[in-house]
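Quick start: what a row looks like.
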Amino acid sequence: MKKKSILSLLVISILLISISTANADLEDNLKSLTEKNAKNYFQPFVTAFGTNLNSGWFNTAEVVKPFHFGISLNSIGAFLVDDSEKTFIAVNPDTSIYAELLIETATVWGSSGEVFTPITTGDPLNLPDGLDISVLPMVVPQAYLGLPYGFEIIGRYLPLMEIEDIGDISFWGVGIKHKVSRWIPLCPTAISIQGTYQKFELDEGEVITIESTFLNAHISKKFLILTFYLGAGIENTKLSANYEYSGNVSNYFGEKLSFDIIGENEFRATFGARLKILILDACIDFSTGKYPAIRIGAGLTF
């Protein structure tokens, strides 16, 4: 089955709307790489994907009133700030066939993949191209519901479905938030803690599963219709790959590979502002981390 681009997969799998296009095939690229080279090629993608997934979970430390609910739409972009992330050193998967021991080639962020040349006769080993981009954009919808005792639950969900030229995909995410400042008498600001978990599967996890967690605390202060907020937290993203190698290295062909790629996003700080008028609100914030991210959001609360 022909797989669409990485960004196209993100768009469909999590109801994300890409603002750019690409020509790299996610599953095909994965299956053409042996484990070590696959990890280095996809590492920046896992980190950027996690950066975006873990954005947009809060824009105030207040919680929705019990049994009131809201919806929001978040436009997010993780930015590449170091061009060294566009390449990695690929290792020769079979020194009896190919001449070079090491070559510098494209990661997901990069442009053209390089080639291992055969020692005598035979086919060269073409490494996959990258997306040649400096920002990974997403648009993420979500819903939230207020609960008693200062709690709020947030959800992101896509049921299992078959998408033409992509395969079976599913996604869900949940977050729980608690306003701890309700237990602090005369506290001048709102303070909340939050935990989130998200899971995406391609072909019911037989090829790719991505899981992400995010634990954070945030504080906010409202001035008329404006709310300013700050947050800090720890995050983790993991891509689990399970596939049968289909590249043209004969010693590996048909071998089943299974490994994890851990994103390099660990700590993030967020600061931003929210404008709320009646049931309408809009916000913008900036997050630091391995890749900085900008989020612009809008929503309704009922």
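That is the whole record. The mean pLDDT is 87. The CA atoms of residues 242 and 258 lie 4 Å apart.
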